[in-house]
Amino acid sequence: MKKIFDNTEIAFAIKSNSELDRAFYLFEMIKREPLVKIGTAVTKFALKTHLPVEGIIRATVFDHFCGGITEEDCMPTIDKMYSKNVHSVLDYSAEGKEVESQFDLAMEKTLNTIKFGKEKLGIPFAVFKPTGFGKFKIYQKITEDTPLDPHEEVEWKRIKERYDIVCKAAFDRDVPLLIDAEETWMQDAADDLIEEMMAKYNKEKVIVFSTLQLYRWDRLDYLKSLHERAKKQGFKIGMKLVRGAYMEKERERAEEKGYKDPICANKQATDTMFNDVLTYMFKNIEDMAIFSGTHNEESSYLLMDLIAKSGLDKNDSRIWFGQLYGMSDHISYNLANAGYNVAKYLPFGPVRDVMPYLIRRAEENTSVAGQTSRELRLLKEERERRKI
User: Fold this and answer.
1) Nearest 10 degrees: CA dihedral of 104, 105, 108, 112?
2) What does the domain layout of the chain look like in residue ranges?
3) Please, which pLDDT band fits residue 78 given cuts at 50, 70 and 90?
4) E-state strands within the chain
5) Domain 68-348 is of which CATH architecture?
6) Mean pLDDT of all residues in the chain?
7) For the whole prediction, is pTM greater than 0.90?
């Protein structure tokens, strides 16, 4: 497979010189782990005590990793990316809410995104996070087979209603819907509910996508069993494939509570799991649709190779590549330039509410071996090419 990801002119075509500079200096800071830890602690304290730091956050990390505060804020970025054939997945990224009004707001935001997806070619998907629609502890109790109290029963019924409302809206408007994955100790409840939605709305084509976090060693077995059920019941499977976002937390909890670590033994095992699941899904593409959410070049080349050898079109509607906004532009824009389907997750929401997401991005770039150094190398090459 021809290597295409080193073309920085294509990768950063829509970035101005000042945006390129900001990205370079931001990743220079992120590569210093102590600085990230100190910055995270200071930011949390400043927001908690209502110090006026939102302007600083907005001008640096927020504007690099997020599209804006509202959907309308995101439109210039969406249009700019789409001019290079890179699509957007509008992601309302406010996290940690625990009240019904906020869950209803997240549902309304998702419904709005579905409407945008119907009206705007640059927005091919909608997305939501399970705990955006209901309390974590309710998913956890169901996953752990713990009875709900009467009030929680009402809340769980409302969660199920929210899922059905947005899945039906996605089905009616023919806009595929991505549903994220979270921690293992709540995920079974979400998986079962998403499977119900797939069985209901994925009869003819994939509308509802679940997410597989492939740092989990059990996910290929889960997918195969889901596939058997889908064949018997006559529905198709949509999956977003990611490596995962909660590794340290998962390992700490497993050790603390004395159960088997749900995470693959090492990065190589995770990479193998991702590629094995990707290959399995591709071999069963008549029954499935793939959203390959990865910043890994080798997994991206694997999918490109599978497409090439199969004779399928590069832009087959069942196969998408995805990355996060603000990261791995060298993958996104070079893939799009080569004719593949590509979408960037574009988070939005109030600065304070999006901070948990931004902190995860900073920590991810610090902890994932090679991620930040790769971003810096490519940014440096493009700055040199432009002679900034």
Assistant:
1) -170
2) 1-66+354-388, 68-348
3) very high
4) 87-92, 126-128, 177-179, 208-213, 237-242, 288-293, 319-324, 342-348
5) Alpha-Beta Barrel (3.20)
6) 92
7) yes
